[in-house]
Design a protein that fits this description.
Blueprint: E1 4-5, E2 17-21, E3 27-32, E4 35-36, E5 42-43, E6 46-48, E7 58-59, E8 65-70
Antiparallel strand pairs: 1-8, 2-3, 2-8, 3-6, 4-5, 6-7
Length: 76
């Protein structure tokens, strides 16, 4: 798998992916989420899943993802 620039293509909404965040040097599990902001405007921020592939994610408007790739298939 190769890294995909967010400028080229975004993942499907709510699908967890491996992502590189601009302000950090770590790779993490992120999802592009559909939310309402404080003004009830629809927005699509990146949410950090902290490695919990099937769990909750944390939103922070400081997350600036630059590259992503699909998660590999889990082991059998």
């Amino acid at each position: 798998m190769e890294w995909i620039k967010v400028e080229d293509r975004l993942p499907e909404m709510g699908v967890n992916v491996l992502a590189m965040e601009k302000n950090h040097t770590e790779i993490g599990v992120y999802a592009l989420c559909e939310m309402r902001d404080d003004n009830n405007e629809l927005c699509t921020p990146w949410c950090n899943c902290y490695g919990d592939v099937n769990g909750d994610a944390e939103f922070d408007d400081e997350y600036v993802v630059t590259h992503w790739m699909p998660l590999p298939e889990p082991p059998k």
